[in-house]
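Task 17 of the worksheet. Students: predict the tertiary structure of the chain below and write it out as structure tokens. Keep your answer in the requested format; marks are given for formatting as well as content.
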Amino acid sequence: MTLAGKLLYISQPGVSRLINELEQDIGFKLFVRRKSGMQATPEGVLLYEDIEKHFLGLKELEGIAESIKTSQKGLLRIIAMPGVVHLMLPEVMKYYWQRYPKINVEIESYPRIEILDRINTRHYDIGIVNLPIDNSEIHIHYTFEKKLTFVMPENHILAKKDKIVIKDLDGLDFVSFPIGTFVRHQIENIIEEHKVHIRSRLSVRSVSDIYQFVKYGAGVSLIFPFHELDGEDIAGLVLKPVNIDFSITTGVISRRKKSSIAAQNFIGLMKELLN
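Model answer:
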């Protein structure tokens, strides 16, 4: 009892009083008082063992909280457009895991419209989607721009030109984004404005799909590249600037204004890599 008082910074009579009050509250004896000291009752031992489990659980909870705070534990859920998922995120995640190797990540790929619908469910920490967004409840954490770029097979007749003129596309087979998408609408407006005639030979969903089909001769295309983090060329393809000053803005978004620690670290890394 004296030692317990020292540990609790109270007097020995204070410990006795607390034990008596606890025994009254729970309705059974915790200790048998003897001349040689105090011995726990069977009921007291049972209560202690159960309390110890909960106490250890609380100590474990403290450790989990500390791990989350220091990014040693956690889950990051990202939803992004296919081109971003296939071409940009592998490079981003390489650097992210170098800093935060114990963070688990879930990445899902959806078209722009579906991302805007799904980000509202709060099942995702981060969304990456082309702007603009007409939704005041979605918070934009960071934006970056990609310029319109011409892509062709490496053996194409235009591959040696330093810069492509939009008129160079006249008469060429073209690989497009799907009808009704924002990017296709913008590119079609540019082509019509300059009175260029192309054959839309193929429509595919993402920039990474366009790369593959252009590489194997399906045509040429105008894209907004998402692979430029490492500065390396793509085998079998040549990318050239176009004489059209047109770019698209992509946003890193979330449903919450205050993101999780794992998400904040991801956003910070994106800013470092893309600035």
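Marker's comment: The first strand starts at residue 31 and ends at 34. Residues 70 and 146 are 33 Å apart (CA to CA).
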